[in-house]
């Protein structure tokens, strides 16, 4: 069997003082945090698309990534990628993976050929899964890259495109059952509009909901019910996407009565594009009991597009992990590295180094968040801030025992209101003590 990374052994935890590039400094899979192994808190997954098919090109430069799995035909390359991918997973100790249908198999010259190619490649993937015990966190259909999706998929003005998208989703659910996928994701890369001058927004959103309901019904028919996830993103490639952020997507889910079947898959870089922090998006989803899974990456606030960098900002990731702990965990979702190496990191082994960095960052963040939770750092701050609602008039407001008339009578007698400082700079300074 070909070894694609002959110079790298299985990556192990060696502690923060190691000088070994190919070792974990902070991620110790079996270390107990809040009574549970790190690996079970984090449920790390590797994204097939950025890891195996991204070539390092950008709008201003050609491909630079050095990859050794290219064969004489597209199918030979696809099979080589499966071998290389599972070698990456095993060396990282990652227990899950994710993919789009077009990532793993060439589309060929017809839908029929594409479906046949998917069958052949997923047979090979299943063999690898059975051999290694590695699991499918989620899969999805790419309904945005091909020219047929120029005007969207479910939101397309062309009914033939809607039907083609439905066929891809059906196959995706068949594959999910075949590989025992724990989740199934919908990302509407072009489900939005360019201009309202020629767009019937309500009709397009109605059609998206129709397709989602078809997916739920088909899953029930074949006896496979993964956790369905919608991944919000505000823009790029579509000028205005219908799943703009967590709140917008939850409004859609509730409008169409999908709340019993759908949760959210949230990405850090998408939060940045929406003008939010990642922890904001996670908190919104958690407030709806809809936090399903996350895509782990980071954006660059100086750049206005989806840079998908590997997460290395311990501050941001700590606050995200705190929300996940407050959620009671992320399972059956996970932490999927929807991230790509920088264009200057073009060697094969950079794929491993980048994932090590991301996994170490989340491990540090997990331990930080656990300590914040154990010591009630945020709980105590919030309890003090909202203490006026624990007794007196505040307690009556919360108990729905007051109305506008009674509150007016109260306010007339208590209009000399004393406010307290938040001391927010002190709070942030104390937070740094947990991080560093």
TrEMBL record:
Pfam families: AP_endonuc_2
Main location (coarse class): cytoplasm
Cofactors that this protein relies on: Mg(2+)
Molecular function per GO: magnesium ion binding; xylose isomerase activity
Entry binding sites for Mg(2+) 1: 231, 267, 295, 338
Catalytic activity: alpha-D-xylose = alpha-D-xylulofuranose
Active site: 100, 103
E.C. numbers: 5.3.1.5
Chain positions recorded as Mg(2+) 2 binding sites: 267, 270, 306, 308
Keywords associated with the record: Carbohydrate metabolism, Cytoplasm, Isomerase, Magnesium, Metal-binding, Xylose metabolism
Domain Xylose isomerase-like TIM barrel span(s) in chain numbering: 89-277
One Gene Ontology term, aspect cellular component: cytoplasm
Superkingdom of origin organism: Bacteria
GO biological process assignments: D-xylose metabolic process
Cell compartment(s), UniProt: Cytoplasm
Cofactor binding description: Binds 2 magnesium ions per subunit.
Homology family: Belongs to the xylose isomerase family.
Subunit structure and binding partners: Homotetramer.
NCBIfam families: PRK05474.1 (NF003998), xylose_isom_A (TIGR02630)
HAMAP family according to UniProt: Xylose_isom_A (MF_00455)
Name by which UniProt lists this protein: Xylose isomerase
Organism encoding this protein: Enterococcus columbae DSM 7374 = ATCC 51263
């Amino acid at each position: 069997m070909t070894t694609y990374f002959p110079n790298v052994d299985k990556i192990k935890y060696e502690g923060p003082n190691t000088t070994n590039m190919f070792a974990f400094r902070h991620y110790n899979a079996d270390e107990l945090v809040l009574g549970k192994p790190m690996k079970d808190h984090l449920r790390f997954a590797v994204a097939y698309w950025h890891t195996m098919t991204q070539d390092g090109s950008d709008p201003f430069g050609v491909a630079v990534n050095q990859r050794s799995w290219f064969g004489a035909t597209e199918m030979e390359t696809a099979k080589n990628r499966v071998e290389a991918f599972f070698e990456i997973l095993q060396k990282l100790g990652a227990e899950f993976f994710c993919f789009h249908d077009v990532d793993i198999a060439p589309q060929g010259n017809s839908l029929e050929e594409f479906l046949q190619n998917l069958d052949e490649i997923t047979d090979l993937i299943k063999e690898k899964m059975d051999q290694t015990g590695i699991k499918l966190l989620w899969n999805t259909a790419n309904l945005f890259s091909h020219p047929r999706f120029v005007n969207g998929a479910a939101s397309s003005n062309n009914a033939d495109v809607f039907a083609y998208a439905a066929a891809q989703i059906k196959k995706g659910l068949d594959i999910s059952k075949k590989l025992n996928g724990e989740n199934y994701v919908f990302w509407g890369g072009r489900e939005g509009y360019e201009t309202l001058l020629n767009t019937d927004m309500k009709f397009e959103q109605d059609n998206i909901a129709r397709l989602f309901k078809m997916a739920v019904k088909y899953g029930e028919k074949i006896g496979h019910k993964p956790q369905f996830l919608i991944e919000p993103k505000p823009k790029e490639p579509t000028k205005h996407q219908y799943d703009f952020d967590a709140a917008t997507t939850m409004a859609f889910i509730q409008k169409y009565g999908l709340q019993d079947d759908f949760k959210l898959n949230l990405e850090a870089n998408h939060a940045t594009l929406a003008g939010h922090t990642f922890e904001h998006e996670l908190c919104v989803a958690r407030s709806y009991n809809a936090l399903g899974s996350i895509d782990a990456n980071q954006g660059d606030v100086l750049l206005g597009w989806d840079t998908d960098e590997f997460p290395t900002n311990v501050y941001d990731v700590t606050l995200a992990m705190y929300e996940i702990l407050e959620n009671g965990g992320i399972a059956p979702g996970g932490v999927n590295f929807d991230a790509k190496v920088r264009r200057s990191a073009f060697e094969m082994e950079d794929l491993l180094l980048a994932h090590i960095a991301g996994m170490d960052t989340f491990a540090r963040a997990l331990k930080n968040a656990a300590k914040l939770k154990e010591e009630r750092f945020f709980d105590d701050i919030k309890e003090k801030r909202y203490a006026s609602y624990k007794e007196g008039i505040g307690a009556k407001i919360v108990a729905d025992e007051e109305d506008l008339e009674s509150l007016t009578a109260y306010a007339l007698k208590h209009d000399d209101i004393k406010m307290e400082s938040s001391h927010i700079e002190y709070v942030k300074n104390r937070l740094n003590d947990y991080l560093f």
